Task: structure prediction
Amino acid sequence: MPGVNPVTSSAPLPLRDIHLPPLPGWWPPAPGWWLLTALLALLIFGLYLLSCRARRLGYRRQALQQLTALETDQQLPATALLGALSSLLRRAMLSAFDRKQCAALSGEAWLTYLDRGFPDAPFSRGIGRCLEQGPYQRDCNFDRAALLALCRRRLKNLPAAPRQRRR
Result:
């Protein structure tokens, strides 16, 4: 090999030792951690919304349970059943709507208010009419199953209770 000095080739080369790169820091996190954090935040927010909705619909669930209890009690006299249904509907409507709208209603105005959302007006022109005078009569003949089904339909169509404003 021309031009190569054998003395310099046998000498150790002036190389430095291997340097490893520094360890990655904990900040900023990798994109996967950002995505996981965002998904966790969305999950927590969704659970919060579901719990708020369940709390606002709790009155409707309780009213339907009370209606089921009235349905199963076959020994209840007709006038007592009509009074209990009327009271149950009144309490449910007061929970769902503004008290100023429905608290003072009675008679035909109350039945018309119960008809809200029903195109066939089953309370003011149908089986629901017996709720007006039925609890105050000695003998009241009505289709028990049809009236209970109508009350169940009314309770299922109630909206969620309005949000409580914090003061």
